[in-house]
Amino acid sequence: MSDTGSHNVSEPHEHLPATGAAHGASAEVRHDPFGNPGHPEHEFRRQDIDEKAAKHSERVVAGLFTLSMLGTLGFIASFVIFPVDKYIYVFPFGHVSALNFSLGLTLSLALVGIGAGAVHWARTLMSDEELTDERHAADADDELRATMEAQWKQGVKESGFGRRKLVRNTMLGALTLVPLSAVVILRDLGPLPEDKLRHTAWAKGKALINPNTNKPLRPEDIPVGSLTFAQPEGLNEESDDFQQQIAKAALMVVRLKPEDIKDKKELSWSHEGIVAFSKICTHVGCPVSLYEQQTHHVLCPCHQSTFDLSDGARVIFGPAGHRLPQLHISVNGEGNLVAMSDFEVPVGPAFWERG
């Protein structure tokens, strides 16, 4: 019985490795999934060993950078060549704006050329040998700074930036030209305002027209304490630029008692207590229209800027930074209210040139 028991105990060990050391090594490899496998052996690229292939890659990179420059120049030229209203047929999109299509195509070439050139340069001509370094503290010491500077210089040397002048010069040309696309886009936001912000449709001799009746306003049409609106003579609601003109020329006309007017200039620019001010709020351009008869205050409904029309329309409350511009008015030979000039200062939201 003892022999049989001994045989049964020893039988399961017949298939174990011959040595305990071998068993331990096998277990260590099998149970260490996070072990560092190391870098594979470095394989040289064709460009590393064949200067002819390297020159070919250099020409490809230079060609991509040159393509980017041509794309930028084409982008700028598109603004000159194609009018806004020209349409062309492009399969499969159908009829599209020639200007938009050319802008998108040329800008894509400019950006893709730079990106593809940089990627091809890095993959074929720059050093591709992987290096490892131990994690270090965030604060670099003098030795580390010197090491990084040396590595930077070595990287520049290996990239061929100084030696491969064709790649360098075409890359610099592409990077220099592509920002011009942004300049052209910003220029296309609209025509330059020039001095248009400083002038409106008002001029000497132009009658104040009631926009509801399209007839000239007369002093007797405006009782004391009332507010009405006016627009310059000659504006046509059917014209293409009517909205642009009325946005600057909209006028509110109020009749006060002459003795209630505190500002001497306002009094001299009025007619029998009738004063005219821009309807456009000097904060963000909302239409001012809420009039308090007893206080002579007018309120902007957007942000509650309040102006005193008996004191030169100065700001007494709210975010507006400037008083409402006053229009100098009088009466012509026909008894109609007319402007004596344009507004003295720009209307609407103030800009820095306005005093």
Tags for this entry?
355 residues; alpha+beta; Rieske Iron-sulfur Protein; five-stranded antiparallel β-sheet; 10 helices; 38% helix; 14% strand; elongated; cell membrane; transport; disulfide bond; membrane; Rieske_2Fe-2S
Structural overview:
This protein has 355 residues and is of the alpha+beta class. The protein folds into two domains: 46-128 and 148-187; 196-339, Rieske Iron-sulfur Protein (3-layer Sandwich), CATH 2.102.10. Helix content is 38%, strand content 14%. The chain is built from ten helices and 13 strands. The chain has helices at 2-10, 20-30, 46-49, 51-81, 98-124, 142-159, 165-177, 179-187, 242-249, 264-268; strands at 87-90, 94-97, 208-210, 215-216, 227-232, 251-255, 274-278, 290-292, 297-299, 306-308, 314-317, 329-331, 337-339. It has a five-stranded antiparallel beta sheet. A four-stranded antiparallel beta sheet has the order 8-9-10-11, with no helix packed on it. β3 (208-210) and β4 (215-216) form a beta hairpin. α4 packs antiparallel against α5 (98-124). The longest helix has 31 residues, at 51-81. The radius of gyration is 40 Å and the shape is elongated. The model is unreliable at 1-27 (pLDDT under 50).
Topology:
Layout: H1 2-10, H2 20-30, H3 46-49, H4 51-81, E1 87-90, E2 94-97, H5 98-124, H6 142-159, H7 165-177, H8 179-187, E3 208-210, E4 215-216, E5 227-232, H9 242-249, E6 251-255, H10 264-268, E7 274-278, E8 290-292, E9 297-299, E10 306-308, E11 314-317, E12 329-331, E13 337-339
Antiparallel strand pairs: 1-2, 3-4, 3-5, 5-6, 6-7, 8-9, 9-10, 10-11, 12-13
Helix pairs in contact: 4-5, 4-7, 5-7
